[in-house]
Amino acid sequence: MQLTSKTCLGLALGLVATASLGATPKVDSYTFGGLRARALGPATMSGRISSLDGVSADPENGSPMTLWVGTASGGVWRSEDAGTTFSAVFDDHPQSIGALRIDPSDPQTVWVGTGESWTRNSVSIGRGVYKTTNGGDDWTFLGLEDTERIGAIRIHPRDGETVYVCATGHLWNSNEERGLYKTTDGGATWSKILYVDADTGCADIDLDPQDPQVVYAAMWQFRREPDFFTSGGPGSGLWRSDDGGETWNELSQGLPEGDLGRIAVAVAPSRPNVVYATVEAERNALYRSNDMGQTWSEVNASTNVAMRPFYFSELVIDPVDYRRVYKPGFFLTVSEDGGDSFSSIFSGGFGASIHPDLHALWIDPSNPHTMALGTDGGVYISRDRAAHWSFVRTLPVSQLYHVAHDLETPYNVYGGLQDNGSWTGPSQATGGVRNRHWDNVGFGDGFWTFPHPEDSSIVFSEYQGGQLLRVDRTTGEVKSIRPYAEEGQEKLRFNWNTPLHLSPNHPGTLYYGSQHLHMSKDRGESWTTISPDLTTDDPKLQRQEQSGGLTIDNSTAENHCSLFTISESPLDAQVIWVGTDDGHLQLTRDGGSNWTELSDKVPGLPDGTWVSRVHASPHAVGTVFATFDGHRRGDMTPYAYVSEDFGATWRSVADQGIDGYAHVIAQDTVNPELLFLGTEMGLFISLDGGQLWARFKENLPRVSVRDLVVHPTQHDLILGTHGRGVYIIDDITPLRHLTPQILEASVSLVPSRPSVMTIEGQLQTFNADDEFVGFNPPLAATITYYLAKRHMFGDLKLEIYDDDDQLIATLPGSKRRGLNRVEWPMRLAPPKLPAATSLVPAFVGPKVPEGTYRVKLIKGKKSLEGEVHLVPDPRSPHAAEDRRIQQETALELYYGLSDLTFTVDSLVAMRDAVEESKSGLRKSETKQLESFAQGLEEVRRSLVSTSEAGMLSGDEKLRERLGTLYGMVSTYDGRPSDSQLAEADKLMAQLQEAMKTVDSTIHSGLPKVNRILKQRNKEALEPLSRDDWDAEQGSGKVASKLGKSRALHLSRQLSAGMLVF
Amino acid sequence: MHNTHTSPFHRLGSLLRQTLPLTLAIAACTTTAWADDTVMASEKTLDEVIACNIETRGGHDAMEAAKGARMKGKMIMGPGMEAPFEITFQRPGKVRMEFEVQGMVGIQAFDGETAWGIMPFMGQNEPAALADDQLKQIQDQADFDGPLVDHEEKGHTVELLGKVDVEGTEAYKLKVTKKNGDVVTTYLDTENCLEFKKEARTSVQGNEINITTEIGDYKEVGDLVLPHSMTQTFEGAPAGQTIAIESVVINPEIEDSIFGMPKPAVEKDSE
After folding, report:
1. Chain A partners of B83 at a C-beta cutoff of 8 Å?
2. How far apart are CA B239 and CA B232, in angstroms?
3. pLDDT digit string (tens) for A996-1055?
4. How high is the ipTM of this complex?
5. Which residues of chain B does A794 touch, with a Cβ-Cβ cutoff of 8 Å?
6. Residue B178 maps to which CATH number?
7. Is residue B129 part of a domain?
8. Is A798 on the interface with B (CB under 8 A)?
């Protein structure tokens, strides 16, 4: 809906005068009210899974297997149907999950340790331990908030109050809230039972299932820095307690000497004296102990056992066979001889049909042939002991780094995913956005992905470490287009997540960042370096080749001293902003000839803080917004600033209401006061240029928002989340109009974008339930209003009037505090049909024509007016004249159905009245009445289906033919076929004939009947009057401009009430 | 999660199957989960909250004086799909609801003992007893005053869990454990003590599903204050189904026979 500016102003002023609450408007999450984000996926490539647990099927009560999934950054998901469908059950809490464990004594009780412990460069953070006692509906926070990440949880097998939490602790700095914690009162209080130092956390634990007082714990010294990772140190070690954690012995006999790194430990459930451990050391290997850890011997050091211990430290022993050892790693290997030898379960390993990089494996204890595997790309389930797998297609936990869009109708979104390539998918599709709608446009770890602004068959994408690609979507051919060092230049340094930027002024001009800024005007065929080294070029911050600690791990993830963010001013192509990962904020105002470093002008910002985003204002050439992210140095503060003078001075816009370190900021393209900020803990919106922020949480989890963009023509806010895929907030026009005046009024209509009368596609599919489907935006006009508080008393409804001031629809209103959205399907009321024995495909009323409609918002005794604009689908191939013919024909049939309904109702009313009058009559008189009634019934049977066989009876009478034709004509937006038009004429003629027949049947027989009744002193019968019937159908006399054109028929047929909702 | 687009015919079929019985049964069962988690202490006791609720709704006497009621309105089952309905209550615990789609009338009723229905859209033209799931729901529906009023006599347990913020509205959060074991979490606004939202887990064809009901548009009808709008949303669905009540008559003329299950008619078709 849109208001003219005059209306809008008048409305706002009027309300301020009459309906002011007098209090300062409260802006919080509820101010955004019923504006919902909708999840689009993709789930075709899912995201990293960090933890799994399950409950076996129970044949006694018939309950299927329950599966719980903890994800790296997409929350907790529960399946109660053996993995067919999943529900997200943890959306209000930190989405990064380290460990998840079901209480063996109560399957409704589940413990969640937040903060993933697979500490790769892009890992998120947690905030302690949570518990549900009702299967995930409610969660209680149980503390250990500063642990940041939890490696494992173990629950006493017979005492659910006794729980061990293995707190890995901070990744990027020292902290003391780490080590092994124990509660014996269900999480009310905790004791730290094993602690080494502030740099060493707990990586893994296990309990002896026969004697749960026996506890094994792996301690791990580790640290990440922006350019470096260290696994291992003197703090690492393997420990055992035999008294539930009171006292501990370090286990070392037979384990490697010297510094250790990450250790995974697993007790064989079927023979608990056998314990296995993978140990990172100078030589990474699997060790086995046959005496509860007293002595160990190395049994295997094959590649998959030894590889990347910080990332693949998971070890699972078969529940019934102590010699069967599973090692999820880069791929899945299994040993059947207690670890002496391992073989790949998949033929060839690399040729496997499942995503590599495995972090979790759950084996059904009641049926060890059933297992679930958590990978970097989602969950797989096997029912034949890992021989074959099915992919869970319902988990949209994809981890986007960036998001973009094109200008198609409907538009497509583009984005790169952690370890899952780059993808594009539609913002809406017939039947919803399904996995099959997503197309792959890049591989590896995906980051920035853009369509060419003038040719969306060309897509630019990239993979880790600066590998830039140009994809031709017509052929699928991919060309590598990365720049190389020019003569005399140092080796180019590309960030893991290398910045790619499209010029907003010169469509097709690309920017790409190493330590320099590069520009290409020929789709990446050639590059010009337009800057010197813009970073600190500090050799102390370029250690990626030595990164990893005990196990070197140089995956480009620690590449440093490189550009991270680029923004050309949409108002001046010479003005380009660049931010680097080592804290430089650089500006050129002459297209790259001269650069100025400005980070020291930013007040309150620690030196060297990673510039996570620069965003040149679309409103003023000297204005720029920037976010900074210090989390890789242990600084979790959200930093967001604005400069209005080309970076000479800066002020913070992140003082109030923000949670989580900041990834991205954007200024709305229309209202400069409207700002969007994405942090590790969600989306935040400011209506006042950054003074006050509130988290947007309607259908949007507390998920990491890594990127966001406002669509320039659809006015949608598109979010790229790292853990829950793409979200869209449809039409942010109302946010642009939440002025203080509106916020102060008790009720206000708020403008929306014009409503497109989207052509509905048809689709026959039977997809079942095991696939995620992204919701479409509603196929309806949207009317938005703001309520200062929840509406409780009296009506809250919307009335829609056409330009003849006829009421054509009444819609129930939404009642919550803040913005409310009501959808008008842009149709008249469903057609009226006479009673019969079958349904016909005619359930909705005809579409109204495009144009402007008046909206009246009625709230109790108050009433506000605005407008809603309906515009044709821009894709529509139908000429205006064709649409007019369609609308008229649909209406003719629609009103014809009303006439038929009245006609049949009058037959039935007369038939029943005659039947009721029979009592006390002579036999011959009764017979005459019965004959009359029977005659009426015969006519009725000729007009409507009466076969009890129902749907497949083939019993088609005028009602069914007319209704079916109406259904076909009214659900196609263009000109009906000539055959349909001829059929319409034929059926309408039959209708006229039928009405005459009914009329004459009643009027020819009725006098005789009434004579008999009169003789017997009974009341004479009267035919049903159309006026009475009309009045009964609803209140009010309604005509429609729709009715004018095919005048003769329609003006006669406008039955009162037929259009009243 | 599913908004499969099929023909309107398909849509209505499944809609009717899934929603009509539930829409009829406005009250249902079990747990929380969708409101803000933070629970604050309530300054009112449970008894005070319930007394306040009854008072705002017109008081105990006015409720008892309403021996029966008839409500008419429309059910909005999906975009552009709506059906007129009529619901009739009579103390003690009788209810009958009718709704019409394409001239065909569906009925569900309960006379205190037998719950029955006619569903011509599903090819069921003769009265038949309702399934156990539906029986539970219609029993709830037949309790005109709702479970809070005289809850002890009715065998329900009600707990006041505290005050919470529901979509920006401060509310008393009450947990109602029904005599039959079902649990409903209901929210009353602290200003008027009126129910505006409830969350329940109900059983559909033997499977449990979470349903949220929003309640509003309270209006005076005689001495009573009654809600005139109810919207039910199924877990995972993009939008809910709404019942809009357009007229209410208290103590109308009611024939007692309408609540009982009729004997199957002999060879009679659609009418």
Report:
1. 830
2. 9
3. 999 999 999 999 999 999 999 999 999 999 999 888 875 333 333 333 333 333 322 332
4. 0.86
5. 217-219
6. 2.50.20.10
7. yes
8. no
